[in-house]
Structures are given as structure tokens and as C-alpha cells.
Amino acid sequence: MLSPESLKKIDQEIAKYPADQKQSASMSALRIAQQEKGWLANETIEFVAKYLGMPPVAVYEVASFYNMYDLAPVGARKITVCTNLPCALSGGVHAAEYIKKKLGIDFNETTADGKFTLKEGECMGACGDAPVLLVNNHQMCSWMTEEKIDQLLADLQK
Amino acid sequence: MLEIEIDGKQLQVSDGSTVMEAAATVGAYVPHFCYHKKLSIAANCRMCLVQVEKAPKPLPACATPVTNGMKVWTHSEQAVKAQKGVMEFLLINHPLDCPVCDQGGECQLQDLSVGYGGAQSRYEEEKRVVGNKNLGPLVSTDMTRCINCTRCVRFTTEIAGLMELGQAFRGEHAEIMPFVEKTVDSELSGNIIDLCPVGALTSKPFRFAARAWEMSRRKSISPHDSLGSNLIVQVKHDVVKRVLPLENEAVNECWLSDKDRFSYEGLNGEDRLKRPMVKQGGAWIETDWQTAMDYVVRGLKGIRADHGPESIGALGSPHSTLEELFLLQSVVRGLGSGNVDFRLRQSDFSADGRMKGAPWLGMSVSEIAGLDRLLIVGSFFRKDHPLVAQRVRQAVKKGLKVSAINPAFDDWQFALQNQLCVSPSEMSAALAKVLKALVEQGSAALSPEFQALVDSVQVDEQALAIARSLGSGRRVAVWMGNYAVQHQDGVALHALASEIARLSGGRFGVLGEAANSVGGYLAGAVPFGAVSGKNASEMLSTPLKAYVLLGIEPEFDLRDAVAARKAFGAAEMVVMLSAFKFEEALGYADVMLPVSPFTETGGAFVNCEGRTQSFHPVVKNTGDSRPAWKVLRVLGEALGLGNFDYESVDAVRAQILGASGSVDPFRLSNDIDIEPLNPAGVSQGLQRVADIPIHFADPLVRRSAPLQATKDSEAPFARISPATLKTLGLNAGDKVVVRSVSGSATVVVSEDEGVAAGCVRLAAAHSSTWALGSLNGEVSVERI
Amino acid sequence: MSSQGIILADLDGDRTWRLADYVKRGGYEALKKIIAEKIPADEIIGEVKKSGLRGRGGAGFPTGLKWSFMPRAFPGAKYLACNSDEGEPGTFKDRDILRYNPHTVIEGMIIAGYAMGCERGYNYIHGEIFEVYDRFEEALAEAREAGLLGRNILGSDFSFDLFAHHGYGAYICGEETALLESIEGKKGQPRFKPPFPASFGLYGKPTTINNTETFASIPYIIREGGDAFLALGKPNNGGTKLFSVSGHVNKPGNYEIPLGTPFSVLLEMAGGIRGGRKLKAVIPGGSSAPVLPGAVMMDCTMDYDSISKAGSMLGSGAVIVMDESTCMVKALERLSYFYFEESCGQCTPCREGTGWLYRVVHRIENGLGRPDDLDLLNSVTANIMGRTICALGDAASMPVQSFVKHFGDEFAFHIEHKKCLVPPQVQYEGSKIYVA
Ligand SMILES: Cc1cc2nc3c(=O)[nH]c(=O)nc-3n(C[C@H](O)[C@H](O)[C@H](O)COP(=O)(O)O)c2cc1C
Ligand code: SF4
Ligand code: FES
């Protein structure tokens, strides 16, 4: 179900917690599984549950509680733009609107070629860098002016 | 002890009490939804906010610990304002569909909104709609009504032992759900219906059948497992519409198993036997009672005259009442025969005549909470005793360590400290090893009868671990499960288990298969005592001329259906007293007498702890059916046997139990005069392990359509361990023929790590497997 | 990033975060001193008490006092947790601390572990700053390698290990008990208190939770003494503090300044208001803190007491600056949406109330307001506040109450005229917020 590399990473996470608290690694395991699979299908969640000895619904609770897990397929690049107040005051909403126009999609939509999905994010703890956005959850891009967005999208197209 | 004042009343409560618990003791009602005395505290509904002196804001009574000198007001202005505020929030997204809601009339939200709700909603935005979930055949959902109290989630996790429901998503999007496309399969699932304070989870079978206020509530006792759960049977126009738990902390607490709750659905099916029927010239005709009884009386008298009284025998269901079983054996003994038994699935009767009393749990059910070590021998524990298992589960959380010795394991949803899985023929050796380890640990001296057996075995790691566990306990028990009692070496297992209990300073008990597994002994429905005779097994192996069968469906309720059919087919007369018309039996029976199921008769069951629980009819008789105790009394009189002039069922009970109506403790005993035990041979072939699945166990539950649609009622698989599958060259999913000495069955193979090597677990009491005959013995498996 | 203090001082951006750089800055001296001199735990806690350090996570609870609640003698596991789940809109200081000076947090936690007898700690890192999580893992590896973490630290009989746990997008996990649930691998739903984490925390064991900046302040306190730290700030408001300034300023960023510095000075450090416009309003302590009119703010000093006197909270030190181009209804709408989205959903008032608040504000913003809406907002917030398990209910209510209180006219205008008091073009110039 998951690659040996992913399982190894999950095992490393499990090792961080007391021996009888394997389930503490559920968030990491879901993250690692999502990185491999692109999103969290029910089978993936069930696999993680079994791997950690948890009831599947408990893992589903986790997967559906935290925003950065995707319970439905997303494009190859998921772009999440912060539009919370501090960002909005410095052009965050504008950045999102600009991306929408460029990609021709709205929030929670994926481009027809399956390359991009756009999401609206909540505060990323980087308000000083507004506008900020995340690419595939882990790459943060700061001070996203129109020019920088053009550049980013061009890079990501490659 | 802590001093507290609630609404001006002074009281003392023990340390660690919550304000909610304290309020309950002075009768101050604090409104609440999420709080439930048997569940962990969630404090999420916020309905129970009360005013506490010096607290800057109202506090939730359910979660606030009492401190010394605390002053609480449950209905002050501040408290009521907070409660009303919460009620407004609860209602903004709740549909106002009480007139069509099944919970109408018994809805906590509806009740409380009368006191705490505003006249008109200030919420004018769009209401939330939540999709319904498929939880299976028993529980119906209307999730838009859910108030997210999470009682159901906590129930599955904490009481049923497996989190089958969760609260997914968050905030306003939070939804209670099972894992996608899964149902709630616990044998206790129906309790979430009672727990749901609104109409989000309701009974699927009961849906729209009646409104709460149209039904009368009558007390009864569950006729299924040996616990004897207390019931409230709800009745409308003389039809049972629904069954709910009657709270009894000493027995079922506030719970019911699904079997207790939903078996009533089997009461009014097409195959209810409504008129007496006799077979004439090979054809069945319906007739009146007089004719049918004359037929029976003439038949029995004739057979006694021609073949002697020993040619007559009776088998009674252990789900029959105490009085029914007593009168059944009275009729048989009145006729001069000792052939009577109610231990229908037992195979080893070698202790008959050597027993000191009726086998029982050896302790009260409520004492389970205090155990610290427990050994369970031969039991499909969780499914055979759902609510006893639930008690053990709670005790495990408090430190009880459980070991078990079984030929097949399921997940019992609590941690087992030791799990010893051996084939049926190795069970007595396994127990002997534990015994030996105990002896070596230096506990009390071994009784000499065990010496030979103990000498023949060698202690292994697992036996040692179990012995250590038992030896380190202070409140120890050893229990025999149904499987052990039914085992071919049942008496040896009994003796060994009891010796293990003795050497570990613990108590020994027998869990008991059915509602009257203890009562049948007290009623004398056994072939020893006053007049002895043939036991249930002998009555089939050496056929009789006449059989009286009470409440039995022979293919499913007897140890060996093949032998039974042969015996009944060859008999001159088979009289069946039954609530249902059994298609299969029409071939070999001669008379069918319609008798009442538990809802239409009165009587008593004696549960596993020796508690007598009597009950009255809750509805009128269906058709011409009559309570079996009346039928047997009339039969006794018509046969001209003395002492059958009981005026009431109570009088019958008094005859059995004496004026007190309860069981004299001296009549309960698990002691037997032991004879020296010898090593048993180990079977080399493939052995069958037959469980009796929870919803196949008796004629009533087998007729409940919703229960038959549950996961627990799936057609039996041939369950084999991975290693044995390999040796047999089989794969999961293969279709196979299983053959025994008596016959064969065609089933599908499944892989089951819980089954002992060299065994096939294949359930009995099912149409697909009865043709195999005996519940145990060697079988062969062949792919087709 | 600019520092007149101790945590972000002498850093060179991304280049000086490694162990060797930290040691050059005097790093791990405090720990070495404790180990070498076998300083008793009580003394360390005493020093922290003396320093006047108050929790930097928002509530401002005295850290030394919190540490003294830990049952040091409790047999068995005790835990430490660092709260780096910085998700409060406007707050972005912990990210910079972890990016540029991770070892100061590690050292602070080791000292805390020593003082409270904990054997293990976890740093819970906000999901969206995953690069910081990776870096922190690297820093931990360095420390472990150097014998600063793990068994028998620096040859002593003291053992402590520390691990990183990442969040994955849930503001509520910043609440300390939700954070513990999350480390336990569950969804982050706060626990009812009591019992408090000091008696029933992670895995049911005694646990202390502090903010990243709180731990980052510890090495200095031990190295230089509690009095020295206290003297950096003012009485009852010891030390320097990081302020994350965002919004309509020319130089948004983190500024580490002594507590008690006038707001006007901080504003100047941040480059003043953009485009020479006038200050309209400031949220001085993260989005949950009540908003204050600009004029009120200009009279405040940046410390717990002054801001509290003015009717708000210093909170996490996130200063959101809004100039005259801001539509206050739109600003509140965005904040209300945030709390509505981030409620964990267990408490009735929060689950149901935050959505109600948002919908009413949204309606007003969209020209569908009703005359009694402001009373409704005040009444609904009153029904949420103080009635929930955690403080998110209050956090969602305080902005609504304060916006309506200080900028009621603007809301009334909206309701009456179905449009903004601030012309759309002005809004666009200020924030580039499109107006549909
Ligand atoms: C809704 C909510 C969100 C919070 N978010 C954070 C946070 O992101 N970071 C933080 O340090 N504390 C946060 N807190 C405060 C923590 O619960 C806790 O008080 C703090 O971590 C304690 O550390 P301190 O004493 O060092 O401040 C939050 C509290 C609430 C109620
Ligand atoms: S106040 Fe809100 S966020 Fe906090 S516990 Fe309750 S529902 Fe969850
Ligand atoms: S009953 Fe106390 S909060 Fe629900």
C-alpha cells in the first residue's frame, strides 16, 4: 500500500513516542501517506489505521479535522493562499484573486489539466511576509506580488 | 467527605464527586445532554451550567468537581440565563419536526426546550443539513437532528470496546459517522438509540411503528442469555412494538444486547404456530385443543402400555421458564420415566449424579467489578455473554487481568493478558499444565485425582504465565464458558478448572448458556435425582418411542441434529410444544401444540448468579396458543397423574423454590465428586470447533429479521488458521465441502488467525451446517 | 526583524542558526552552568519567578509560578511541551525564533526539563511552517550529537530528550490541551479543566506547556539572572518581548523591544503607516484581542498592564495595524469567518454561535443588515463568552464586541445605507481588497 521509504519514515515518527503510544504518529503517518499518494483515499486511511493499530474512524477523525489533509484528489500543485485579516490588509486577497484569474479557477477548484488546485488558507503564522501562499503544504512563498506570482506559476508549470 | 450546599440544601458527598452527582442526590435536576453516568465526561453540550459561589462564570455541573464548602445554585438567574443561552444555540440548527420525529414524546431536547427555549427563534439564517449514515439494520439515522453530544461515540469506544463511531470534521461541519461505508456492528449497538438524547439515532425496526405515548410499558425478563436482562416491553393494541432496557444496576445496568432488544421482531412472523395441529394419515390438520390433547394423552398412554415408561422422553429448551421445565419433568416422571433433559448441546454427562447442586457463576454479577484476575475456559465470551463481557471490559480498565484458554478466539474488545489457543482435544492437557504450574508455584496441595494427568504434562511458557497471573491475584475467578460445558471432555474441564480456581484461591463459576441454564437443574429437568433416566444425548443415540419437545427446533438446538432426526423419524410419536411452526419438523413430528413465547406467558428464569427473576405476560395470547405451563398442567391432569392442580404459575414456582420465591443458596454448587482423571488422547485429524453465533442461538432470535441482517448473522464460514490453510492447500474464499461422520456441508473458507492449528471453526445452529451432526469431532475439508 | 533584546539579537538571518553559531553567542552556557554547579531545581524556578517572565503564548501567566505547579516528586513520566503552533492571526514571532535561533528554544526546554523533572519534551510546530519543522529536526540532531540531549546530558545523571511534532492545519491546537490531544494522535479538541495539565497532561501524566518565546527567554534568565531579565522591562512585565507588526505599516516584521516601550515608538520602528495615511485602529495582541481605536493606542505602552488598562490584551504580541482605508465591517467579517472555521466543534455555544456571528456580520457587510443586528451580535457573544470549554469562544466574541463598541457608527452606516462608509476605491488603495 505504501512504499518502503514511506513506511520507514513512519517508523521514524513512531520512534519519537513512548512504545505504547504508537497512535501519536497518526498525523505524521497521514502526512507521509499523503505525500506519496497525493491525497488520502479511504483505503489509505484504513491502511494507516491498521499500521498504527487504531480504529479507522479515529484516523478519519484526524484526517478530517486538520486542514492540510486532502480527502479528495487535488492537482499536482496545491496552492493555498492566506486571506486572513493581516494578510488581507497587505494584499492577500488580491493575490488570491490574481491567481484565480490567471488559472481560471476559483477556490477549491482544479485546473482542467489537473496541474493546479487553489485553496483559501487561514493564518500561516507569516503575516509579516504578506501576501503568503503555500505550495503543496510545505513550501512557503512570501511577499507574493503579481510579478512573483507570475514567476512562481511559470516555474511550477515546468 | 466534602460539604456542599446546593440550592440552599446542605449535603455531604464523597471526594471526587462532581456537582452533577451531588445535585442528583438531593434531587436537584440539572438539565444536560452530553452527561451520562456510565460514560466519560465530555462537558461539551454546556447545558448543565450552574452558578457557583466565587466563580466568575457559570460552570458545567457534569465536569466540575465538588470542593469543600462549595455553594451551588442550579436555578439562579445566572444559571438559568446560561442554560437558556445554550438551549437557543442547540435549537438554531435543529429541525422543528417533532410531530414526525420518532423521538417525539421521549426527547430530552423537546422536553427541555419547553422549559428553556424561547418562543421564537432569533436565528434567521439558513439551517444546516447533515447527510444520514447507514449504520446497519438496527439503527436509523436523522443526522440533521444530531446535537453532537458524542454519547454514541463514547459508548462505542468505552462500553462496546471498539470505536465504531467518530466525530469527523470540525466546528459547524462536525458530523457523527462510522468510518466511511462501515456500519456499527457491535452486539451492543442498540444502546446508542437509548443514549441519543434527540431523534438522530432511532430504532430502525421500530421506525414509525408507534408514538411513545400510545404504548404501555410492561416489565419483563429477556429469555436469551444467562444474564436475564431486565426489559421494558412496549405494547400497543396487544402487539409488542419495542423493547427497552429496564435499568437494574445488579444485572444489565442500563444496557441491553441487541439480541435482548430486537428479538421481539421474531414474535409475530408468518410461522407463528396459532392452532394445535395433528398429523393424520401423513397430512397435517389444524384442530382444537381438546382433540389435540386427547390425541397426545392417548398416544402417550398407549406407548407406555406397549413399551413401558422408559420408552418416553422429553427435551426442554433451556430458554423455557422454570415452571415449564418443572412441569415437563413432572409429566415425564409422573409417567414413570426419568428421561428428561434440558442440556441440549452438552455431550459429557459423566458428572450426572455426582453434582452437589446446580452449576452457576459462583459469584454475583456485580462482584465482577472487583475481580483482579480471571481465567476463562472455552468460551466465545463476547458474543455468548455480551453484557457480562461488558462488565469484564470495564473491570479490565480498572486493572483486571484476563487469561483465556480456547480453541478459537475472536476480538473481545479488551486486552487479554494471556491467550492460549489449543485444539479441542488438547484443552484438558492445557488446563493440566496450568494446574501443574500452580502446584510448582507452591500453592496448596493438589487433589490426588489430578495427579496422573498432571504428571503426564509438561509446563510450558504460556501455562506458566497464566499460573503466575492467577497466583498474583487477590480476587480471582475461573469461569467455564458454554463451549467448555459442551465439550466432549466437559466434565474433566470442569474438574480441572475448578481445581485451578481452588489452587489460586479463587472462585469457580459456570457462565451458563441460556436464560434458564441454572433454573433447569432446580426444576429437576435432568435425568437424575428422584427417578433417573436417559440424558439428552442418550435419548437420541438409543431411540425412544415417544418424545415430548418443549420450545426446541431440533435441527439447531440439539447437539446432534442428524441423530435427532433419525431418532424422531423412527419414534411412534413426537409431540412438539412450540411457539413456531418448524418446517423441517413437519416431517417427523406428529403433534404441534402452540405455546406462548415469553411475552405471552408468566414465569421465571434463574440467571447465572442464581437470581430468580419472574415476569408476567405483556400481551394476550396469539391465536389459540396457550402458556406452556398451562398446557403441561392440563396434560398432567389428563394423563391422570397426581398433583397437577396448580392454580397459578406462582404456585408452581412455590413448589420449586419454596415460599420465598428465591433460590436457596445451598442448591447452587459447582462441586462434583471427582474421579481420577486420565490423560486424554490427542486427535490427529482436523477437528471441528463449533460456536453458536449470537443470533442463531434460539428459535426466537433466529426469527428476528433485523437481527438476521446483521454482520453477526452472516452464513458460517469454515474459519481456518493461515498455517492450517497452507497444509490443507486451501485459500480464503475457496468453496469447500466439509464432511463429518454424519454428513456434509458446503461452505466458504475464510482465514482466521484466532483458530487453533489443525481446526476448522464452523458455526452450528444454522441451516447450512446442521447436516454435519455432532458439534465436535473430526472432519475433512475438500475444495469444490 | 529587529532586536533590542535577547532572543533575536545578533542574528544574521538564515545563516547563523546552527549549534556552533549559537554557542558563539553564549549558547548552552546556562545549561552547562546548571550541570556543572548542580544548581537545585528550586533555585532555577526561583530565578524564573524573579525574572517576572510571563507566558508569551497569550495569557501572560507567570512562568515561574506555572513551573512550581509541577509535582516534581511524582513517580513516573512527566512531560514538557513547547507551543509553537502559532496560528493566531497576526502572530509570526515563533517562526522567526525557530528559524533563526532554534537552539535557544532547545536550551530553554532542557533547562525546564531539568527544573521540573521531565524526561521528555515535544515541540508542537505549526503545520504551515513545515520548513521550520525540518530545520528544528536538524537542530535537535545537532544537540543530540553534542550530548546536549538524550541520556546523561553532558555527562551528568540528568536525561532529557526532545522531539518535534508537527501540526497540520488547526488553529485550535494552539490551545494547550488541544495541543496535547494532538500529540496523542487525536483531533485537537481541548479538554475540560480541571484537571489541569500539571496533574493530567500528555498521556495522562503531569505536563507543562509553554510558548516558544517563553522557553527562548529561559537561557538568558539563567545565564544573567532573573533580576537582569526583569530590568530589561518594567515591574510585573519583565524582559523584552517580540512584537509581530502587520497590516498597514511600511515595514511589517518582528520587533523585539523592552516591555513598556511606547506604541508610537514601535510604530515608528515598523516604518510608520503606509502611504502617509492616518491610523484608524490597532489590534494589539493578536486577532482575539479587542480592537482599540488608533488614538487610544497612541497613548499606550507595549506591556501587559498598559494594554489591559486600555481595554484590550497584550496577548501574543501581534500588532495588527489598520489605517483609515480599512472598512471595519469587512475586517470583522474576515476575523469572524476565521473563528467560525476554526472552532473545534465540541461546545454548543462555540460550534453554533461562531457560525451565527459570522453570518450576521457577513450579511451586514453585504448590505443585508437589519436594525437590531448589533443588539443581536452583542447578545449572541454574551451567550458564548465564558460558557465554553476553551477560550476560543471568548476569542471569537471579543473582536465582535470591540468592533461594534468602537466602530458602531460604521456598522450602523452599513446597515442603513447598505454600503461601506469607506469608499471602495480607498479600500483598494489601502489593502488591494477587491470589492465585489
Ligand atoms: C484558541 C487558543 C489558541 C491559542 N494559540 C496559542 C498559540 O498559537 N501559541 C501559544 O503559545 N499559545 C496559544 N494559546 C495559549 C495556550 O493555551 C497556552 O496558554 C500557552 O501556550 C501557555 O504558554 P505560556 O504560558 O508560555 O504563554 C492559545 C489559546 C487558545 C485558547
Ligand atoms: S470553545 Fe470552541 S474551540 Fe474551544 S473547545 Fe469549545 S468548541 Fe472547541
Ligand atoms: S451535561 Fe455538562 S456539558 Fe453536557
TrEMBL record, chain A:
Binds 1 [2Fe-2S] cluster. This is NADH-quinone oxidoreductase subunit E. Its cofactor is [2Fe-2S] cluster. [2Fe-2S] cluster binds at C82, C87, C123, C127. Coiled coil: none annotated. It comes from Zoogloea ramigera. It holds the Pfam family 2Fe-2S_thioredx. Belongs to the complex I 24 kDa subunit family. Gene3D superfamilies: Glutaredoxin (3.40.30.10), NADH-quinone oxidoreductase subunit E (1.10.10.1590). Keywords: 2Fe-2S, Iron, Iron-sulfur, Metal-binding. It comes from the Bacteria.
TrEMBL record, chain B:
Binds 1 [2Fe-2S] cluster per subunit. It comes from the Bacteria. The keyword Iron-sulfur applies. Residues 1-78 form the 2Fe-2S ferredoxin-type domain. The keyword 4Fe-4S applies. Keywords: 2Fe-2S, 4Fe-4S, Iron, Iron-sulfur, Metal-binding, NAD, Quinone, Translocase. One of its GO terms (biological process) is ATP synthesis coupled electron transport. NCBIfam families: NuoG (TIGR01973). Its EC number is 7.1.1.-. Residues 78-117 form the 4Fe-4S His(Cys)3-ligated-type domain. Belongs to the complex I 75 kDa subunit family. Coiled coil: none annotated. This is NADH-quinone oxidoreductase. It comes from Zoogloea ramigera. It catalyses: a quinone + NADH + 5 H(+)(in) = a quinol + NAD(+) + 4 H(+)(out). Gene3D superfamilies: 2.40.40.20, 3.10.20.740, 3.30.70.20, 3.40.50.740, Dimethylsulfoxide Reductase, domain 2 (3.40.228.10). Residues 215-271 form the 4Fe-4S Mo/W bis-MGD-type domain. One of its GO terms (molecular function) is metal ion binding. Pfam families: Fer2_4, Fer4_NDSU1, Fer4_Nqo3, Molybdopterin, Molydop_binding, NADH-G_4Fe-4S_3. GO terms for cellular component: membrane; oxidoreductase complex. The lineage of its organism: Bacteria, Pseudomonadati, Pseudomonadota, Betaproteobacteria, Rhodocyclales. InterPro entries: 2Fe-2S_ferredoxin-like_sf, 2Fe-2S_ferredoxin-type, Asp_de-COase-like_dom_sf, MoPterin_dinucl-bd_dom, Mopterin_OxRdtase, Mopterin_OxRdtase_4Fe-4S_dom, NADH_UbQ_OxRdtase_75kDa_su_CS, NADH_UbQ_OxRdtase_ferredoxin. Its cofactor is [4Fe-4S] cluster; [2Fe-2S] cluster.
UniProtKB/TrEMBL annotation, chain C:
GO terms for molecular function: 4 iron, 4 sulfur cluster binding; FMN binding; metal ion binding; NAD binding; NADH dehydrogenase (ubiquinone) activity; NADH dehydrogenase activity; quinone binding. It is an enzyme of class 7 (translocase). Residues 329-374 form the NADH-ubiquinone oxidoreductase 51kDa subunit iron-sulphur binding domain. Pfam families: Complex1_51K (PF01512), NADH_4Fe-4S (PF10589), SLBB (PF10531). It catalyses: a quinone + NADH + 5 H(+)(in) = a quinol + NAD(+) + 4 H(+)(out). It comes from the Bacteria. One of its GO terms (biological process) is cellular respiration. The keyword 4Fe-4S applies. Its cofactor is FMN; [4Fe-4S] cluster. PROSITE patterns: COMPLEX1_51K_2. Its EC number is 7.1.1.-. Gene3D superfamilies: 3.10.20.600, 6.10.250.1450, NADH-ubiquinone oxidoreductase 51kDa subunit, NADH-ubiquinone oxidoreductase 51kDa subunit, iron-sulphur binding domain. Keywords: 4Fe-4S, Flavoprotein, FMN, Iron, Iron-sulfur, Metal-binding, NAD, Quinone, Translocase. InterPro entries: ComplexI_51kDa_subunit, NADH-UbQ_OxRdtase_51kDa_CS, NADH-UbQ_OxRdtase_suF, Nuo51_FMN-bd, Nuo51_FMN-bd_sf, Nuop51_4Fe4S-bd, Nuop51_4Fe4S-bd_sf, Soluble_ligand-bd. Belongs to the complex I 51 kDa subunit family. NDH-1 shuttles electrons from NADH, via FMN and iron-sulfur (Fe-S) centers, to quinones in the respiratory chain. PANTHER family: NADH DEHYDROGENASE [UBIQUINONE] FLAVOPROTEIN 1, MITOCHONDRIAL, NADH-UBIQUINONE OXIDOREDUCTASE FLAVOPROTEIN 1 NDUFV1. NCBIfam families: nuoF_fam, PRK13596.1. This is NADH-quinone oxidoreductase subunit F. It comes from Zoogloea ramigera. The gene is nuoF.
